[in-house]
Amino acid sequence: MGWESRRIDQDAAVCAVQFPAIGLIWWIGEQLGDDYAYAGAYGAFAVFALACLLVVAPLVLPVLGLLHAVVHVLPAELLAHRAARRTRGPVWAWHLALTAVLGLIWAALALLLWDWPFTTTAPLFAALGVVPVFGLEWLRRRPRGPWAVWLPSLFASVGLFLLVFLGGVLATVTGILEEYEPPVLSAGQLTGTWRGEEGAVLSLGAGGRAELTDVPAESGSADQNAEPAFAVCDGTGTWLLDDKGGHERAGVVVRLDGECGQETYWRIGGTESEPELFVPFGDPDAPDVRILTRD
């Protein structure tokens, strides 16, 4: 079995089926997670971005399907035919198993290159081969021809997208998927070292003292569009927990001893197990959001 254009076309078509549904699942997950509320118009932007993706989908999906087929599904299929000839087992079963194995390999590579969490990416990458494998088994029993490949792919993609959409609506209405709530942390839980981009380190001491290294702070400029939108400060200061409802959510007020920057309100986000501190700088409609995570 070779890499004929017809076979590659079929693999690309079935791989493309799942990407709109995957994109919708990702979008739903983003909406249920911390959207850094009150940090800008992210909700409207997300809806606009989703609409744009639906418009360009007919151009993007074949490319994504071809890429997925070449690096994942098709190599596993070639190995599956060889394994089936030696063991006389069903090709589809070997194809499914080898696609899962190859997904684990790609997840391990992502861990080494980009430090992606293996426990999350491994099942996701393995699952990406399920729809293509069974789709190929069905597709190759159908009449041949260009419309016999991409037209069923289009209908299946729309159907899967609508199924995920309806499932998300029902899960939200019934309360299975709950709206995000920021964690409630005590001063003791906030005590410790928090790190961010470009070497930012904020140490919150038990006595209310704070130490800053390359930490962004309010610049004090009245111009929201000023560049840069914040000051980068080193030094010491004080901090306190504000959980009295004075802001849209609880947070940490950091005041510096020196002249660098102004009082900065770091909102609490993330989850109980992985809390975050974040603050939006600059234009509220398009803020520069800086995030600190705890060691």
Q: Could you give the distance between the termini? A: 52 Å
Fraction of helical residues: 40-55%
- Average pLDDT confidence is 84
Q: Number of helix segments?
A: 8
> Can you count the beta strands?
8
What is the overall shape? elongated
What does this structure look like?
- This protein is of the alpha+beta class.
- The protein has two domains: 5-173, no CATH class; 187-294, Lipocalin.
- 50% of the residues lie in helices and 20% in strands.
- It has eight helices and eight strands, in the order ααααααααββββββββ.
- The protein has helices at residues 5-16, 19-32, 42-87, 91-114, 118-127, 130-139, 146-173, 187-190, and strands at 192-195, 201-204, 209-218, 230-242, 251-256, 264-270, 275-281, 288-294.
- An eight-stranded antiparallel beta barrel has the order 1-2-3-4-5-6-7-8.
- A hairpin with a 4-residue loop joins β6 (264-270) and β7.
- α1 crosses α3 (42-87).
- 27% of the residues are buried.
- Residues 38-43 have low confidence and may be disordered.
Short recap of the structure:
With 295 residues, the chain is α+β, with helices and mostly antiparallel strands.
